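Limitations

Structures in this collection are predictions, not experimental determinations, and the ligand pose is part of the prediction. Treat each record accordingly. The example that follows, with NAI as the small molecule, is included so readers can see exactly what is and is not provided: the inputs are given verbatim, and the output is the predicted complex.
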Amino acid sequence: TKSPMRVSVSGAAGQIGYALLFRIANGDMLGKDQPVILQLLEIADEKAQKALQGVMMEINDCAFPLLAGMTAHSDPMTAFKDIDFALLVGARPRGPGMERKDLLEANAQIFTVQGKALDAVAKRTVKVLVVGNPANTNAYIAMKSAPGLPSKNFTAMLRLDHNRALSQVAAKVNKSVTEIEKMCVWGNHSPTMYADYRFATTDGKSVKEMINDDVWNKDVFLPTVGKRGAAIIEARGLSSAASAANAAIDHVRDWALGTNGKWTTMGIPSDGSYGIPEGTMFGFPVTTANGEYQIVQGLAIDAFSQERINLTLKELSEEREGVKHLVG
Ligand code: NAI
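Predicted complex:
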């Protein structure tokens, strides 16, 4: 049998945490033959820690065969000790009267501390996924705060956007999601993201040619995917949680176990591909194998796509500028 992998989840008592932990412990993320140890991080606040204890009671009550251990933490220095994976879900939500700038700064502080803690105590091979918003910039800050770890170990979650795009396109061409390949999403996890089905195929046929409707792309598809988070809040009264948790599982599973040549989307530090400045935490089409991701190269970027990519890049550059004074 395999030796257990250590997985840390922050924001473990939150709504995404509640939808995520059970699936990790069930083997949905790292495989049905891979034992896991959960190292759960929450803020020191008494209510949060108590809620975390409640979640842990429920996890115990599932008697998951793969769960080899579980601990509660309020300090990232203990929560991240020797971990193989970090799913950084906990973040500061926007409070009343809070400006975007305040939100960026509050989160910059959290992700500076957590990046430093990862640098100090995590395994050198740790794979980090940032879910907490603003996810790309938070991931960027954590990466910059951990100079002792390879930058490529830090990623941001664009997978929910990717899955949303996949589901919309599959419905449009009347196929199942498994029949659609080569979908991708470029840029920031925000309404500026650019979901791109120009390269998508089904049974080897071009999805773009099947849809053949640029107005639908521009006026229906892109706004539907871009504003999906808001639509869910409007309908459910709460933000997406189970779908976000599912996307986190998909992201880490594909990163760890490989996509067999298939494309997916990950927010990763740019290597300069497609003119995205090096280090920018940007959604790219990738394939993964042997625990490494590779950007899909050589895709033609038409004028409309370039415009959309520029827009989401501009937003990310502004976020990055806004936290510059906090990052070394
Ligand atoms: P939530 O408010 O239900 O839970 C967040 C939890 O994080 C809370 O229990 C809180 O105590 C904890 N937390 C806050 N700061 C922390 C810190 N410094 N260390 C450890 N724990 C901390 O929120 P929910 O719905 O679970 O969402 C979590 C985050 O995920 C939000 O920032 C949300 O915007 C983001 N999100 C990102 C998505 C993406 O696609 N990248 C999709 C959906 C949500």
